[in-house]
Specification:
single chain, 8 helices
Length: 208
């Protein structure tokens, strides 16, 4: 897990260097970071809150060998995360012109760019919270390397998109693509997943 965490940090550094090189000091850079800040308020904060609430009880159930309660709690929280994410996804799609009021210092032209950016980031709103929930399950059973591999994959996908595309929106849809890829990376070994009965995975049941 230490190796994967280090690779994730290096990829993150390279990602920010490429962001500066690809966008430069421009209105698009302001819009990108404002869009990420809005994600922080509306999406990342919810993911962090659920993470803080879920992990202690999941760890307790796992250490006590209460697999039935562990699976029930994990499955129930996963369903809840999906419902919250669907609501946020609808917000980003249908009400993005209202969400831009969170950037009061932006002139109308930048608010238009910001509304477009939120549309490109809608997949993040849909998949990020369930992804973090799966990460909480992985960490609860001490599969830290799996969590860091997913984080590394997000950075790797963004780096690949920026390197291979000159689309002005590449950072936005590249980040969304990275989150979607990490989500399905987590789901790939979960052929025996049961929701809401629990999240069963042979990959998660083995020690790191």
């Amino acid at each position: 897990s230490v190796v994967w965490r280090g690779m994730d940090r290096l990829a993150g550094l390279a990602k920010h260097i490429l962001i500066a090189a690809a966008i430069g000091l421009s209105a698009q850079l302001d819009v990108f970071y404002m869009a990420i800040a809005i994600l922080g308020v509306l999406v990342f904060s919810w993911a962090h809150l659920l993470d803080v609430m879920a992990v202690p009880q999941l760890v307790k159930d796992w250490q006590e060998g209460d697999r039935a309660n562990f699976q029930s709690l994990a499955g129930g929280l996963f369903v809840f995360c999906l419902l919250v994410s669907l609501l946020l996804f609808s917000l980003f799609i249908g009400l993005r012109d209202w969400v831009v009021v969170l950037a009061p210092g932006f002139e109308p032209s930048r608010k238009t760019l910001l509304a477009d950016a939120l549309l490109w980031l809608a997949p993040v709103a849909l998949f990020y919270i369930p992804l973090r929930m799966l990460g909480s399950v992985a960490r609860a059973v001490r599969r830290f390397s799996l969590f860091y591999q997913a984080e590394f994959l997000i950075s790797l996908v963004v780096l690949a998109c920026v390197a291979l595309s000159d689309d002005p929106h590449v950072l936005l849809w590249g980040f969304g693509l990275g989150v979607v890829a990490a989500f399905f990376f987590f789901c790939s070994p979960c052929a025996a997943t049961s929701v809401p009965g629990g999240i069963r995975s042979t990959r998660l049941s083995k020690p790191a």
